[in-house]
Design a protein that fits this description.
Layout (H helix, E strand, L loop, with lengths): L4 E7 L5 H5 L8 E7 L13 E5 H9 L5 E10 L6 E4 L14 E4 L5 H12 L8 E4 L21 E3 L4 H7 L4 E3 L14 E3 L4 H12 L4 E8 H6 L3 H22 L7 H12 L12 H13 L9 H4 L2
Parallel strand pairs: 1-2, 1-3, 6-7, 6-9, 7-8
Antiparallel strand pairs: 3-11, 4-11, 5-9, 5-10
């Protein structure tokens, strides 16, 4: 019997390089992994068997009865969110509590990353319903993204046609939530700064308190593919695990790709142990439960979602 060819689309995360070069693979299947500039819409592409998918959109689809995707507890994108809150250099804002009653721009309402960032405000006692939210593109010319989802937006959430960086610069926005930094954040004289002056310390404290780094995107397979090959999810997860471990081994050996990557890798091991981005349902149970709770508490999910629903 010929082995199945499984076509996946993902963003070009560096921990997937061993898969892309063939150094890691799935037993019993021929994986064809292609990279994309933006997160693919797996269900919209008949030729795809699976790929990278928004954590929130996957969870919300299941909550609404749409089970066309089978999520794997393989979080291809994960990261702390404290770094994602930007304010003007001249702003007097310096903490999440300062954002009570503010006008805040964000790049998508139901997005996984923005859900985690809003959770930071909730944890500090900020009433999200008292914030004026403006949803739009970070910069001019960005297209091709669903920024609002399928559910009606709350009354304090509006879509704006003004790029968020412009609104932040002219003072119509007090802060912006963005997972990706505008180019001027990498210059000496940018107009913006991070709300958290030492976001690394804030994120380290968050990890000490929660025990996880938030998950943003996961890997998913189409249900008909899983029905045809029930063993495939485990084989694919193992392949991505092997890719991640090979990548880390090579980064530790070839640490001169940035001036201080070695220091970063050593610090990472001291804080997080051998793996800061574990795969598997059990390893991600606490993180998944916290995320599902936030989706419901923030009014994004139509009903409470149990963590075990996501990775049955």
């Amino acid at each position: 019997m010929p082995i199945p060819r499984i076509r996946l689309a993902v963003r070009d995360w560096d921990h997937l390089v061993p898969l892309l070069t063939g150094r890691a693979g799935a037993r019993g299947a021929a994986l064809e992994v292609e990279t994309r500039d933006v997160t693919p819409d797996v269900l919209a592409e008949p030729d795809l068997d699976g790929g990278e998918t928004s954590f929130s959109r996957y969870a919300l689809a299941l909550a609404s009865g749409d089970d066309r995707l089978v999520g794997l507890p393989v979080f291809l994108m994960r990261g702390f969110r404290h770094r994602c809150v930007l304010v003007r250099w001249s702003s007097g804002l310096s903490s999440a509590r300062d954002l009570a009653g503010a006008t805040i721009g964000l790049t998508g309402w139901p997005d996984s990353g923005n859900t985690w960032t809003r959770a930071l405000l909730r944890a500090e006692g900020v009433d999200l319903s008292g914030v004026q939210w403006r949803v739009g593109s970070l910069a001019a010319g960005e297209t091709g993204k669903d920024r609002v989802g399928s559910r009606p937006l709350p009354g304090n959430v509006r879509v704006t046609g003004t790029p968020l960086v412009e609104g932040l610069a002219d003072g119509s926005l007090d802060a912006v939530f963005t997972p990706f930094m505008p180019p001027e954040m990498f210059t000496a004289r940018g107009r913006f700064r991070h709300l958290y002056g030492d976001y690394r310390a804030a994120e380290t404290a968050y990890y000490a308190r929660t025990g996880f780094v938030p998950g943003i995107h996961l890997l998913a397979l189409k249900r008909e593919v899983v029905d045809a090959h029930p063993w495939l999810p485990e084989a694919v997860q193992d392949a991505f695990e092997a890719s991640k471990r090979l990548w880390l081994e090579r980064r530790r050996l070839l640490a001169d790709t940035t001036p201080w990557l070695l220091d970063e890798l050593e610090a990472q091991a001291r804080i997080f142990g051998p793996d800061w981005m574990p795969y598997g349902a059990e390893a991600n149970a606490a993180m998944t439960a916290a995320f599902c709770a936030e989706l419901h508490e923030q009014g994004i999910a139509p009903r409470p979602i149990k963590a075990e629903e996501l990775f049955g």
